Amino acid sequence: HRILLLGAPGAGKGTQSAKLADEYGVEHVTTGDALRANKDMETEYGTPRSFMEAGELVPDPVVNEIVEAALADADGFVLDGYPRNLDQAEYLSSISDLDAVIFLDVDEEVLVDRLTGRRVCNDCGANFHVDFQPPEVPGVCDECGGELIQRDDDTEETARERLEVFYENTEPVIEHFRDEGDLVEVDGEAPPDEVFDRIRDVLDE
Ligand code: AP5
Ligand code: ZN
């Protein structure tokens, strides 16, 4: 399987990609996590951190290189967080073919609630939400006992900036795949397991 998962910030791409990688035994390739792990890497454009903390896109050459290396090593994959603009989409089509393109559709106000309430494990990266997916013990990771923290870019102000960037840069990517006839839309406003069942139905068709 070579699966592309598209959606706005907070749509549930990370949550669903992790489940898909488990279920189908494919690599989870995510530019967000890759960039967070290399936040302070020096590039000719500056560090990824400077862009990410402002909610802006990291420059294409940096991101394209990360994706190309990750896909070259992967047999099958679920790709999440890329492409985020038309240039990245063009680059992707030059390096890989896709079997499925899925767009997780979620309303803007729901996205803001999901982003500002998200907590992530500082040790293993697992995702939680203070209301929608609360950990058993507040502030503690169910998986590994690590500390749960809020991402720098999940403040309301930066979350809204990221949504602006999405509507401006990434919606045209979604239109592009829709025009090509490759896009399958999945309603992402349901509990995670239900959304996962919907995605699985699409893939198993
Ligand atoms: P990235 O890490 O990709 O962030 P994003 O696209 O903004 O996506 P998120 O991780 O915020 O959301 P998600 O859709 O994965 O949702 P999640 O499953 O966590 O990118 C971060 C930054 O890196 C960018 O701003 C940019 O600077 C840079 N970057 C990354 N890729 C780039 C690229 N290609 N080019 C340039 N720059 C790039 O869910 C969110 C919350 O909701 C969680 O708390 C979760 O528990 C909860 N939740 C999930 N599903 C449900 C559900 N069904 N019901 C209720 N709650 C749910
Ligand atoms: Zn953990």
UniProtKB/TrEMBL annotation:
Cellular component GO terms, alphabetical: cytoplasm
Residues reported to bind AMP: 31, 36, 56-58, 81-84, 88, 151, 162
Domain Adenylate kinase active site lid: 118-153
Residues at which Zn(2+) binds: 121, 124, 141, 144
Region (LID): 117-154
Catalyzed reaction equations: AMP + ATP = 2 ADP
List of residues binding ATP: 10-15, 118, 190
Keywords, comma-separated and alphabetical: ATP-binding, Cytoplasm, Kinase, Metal-binding, Nucleotide biosynthesis, Nucleotide-binding, Transferase, Zinc
Highest taxon listed in the record's lineage: Archaea
Localization annotation: Cytoplasm
Pathway in which this enzyme or protein is active: Purine metabolism; AMP biosynthesis via salvage pathway; AMP from ADP: step 1/1
Matches recorded under InterPro entries: Adenyl_kin_sub, Adenylat/UMP-CMP_kin, Adenylat_kinase_CS, Adenylate_kinase_lid-dom, P-loop_NTPase
GO biological process: AMP salvage
Function noted in UniProt: Catalyzes the reversible transfer of the terminal phosphate group between ATP and AMP. Plays an important role in cellular energy homeostasis and in adenine nucleotide metabolism.
Subunit-level organization: Monomer.
Identification of the protein by name: Adenylate kinase
Record organism: Halorubrum trueperi
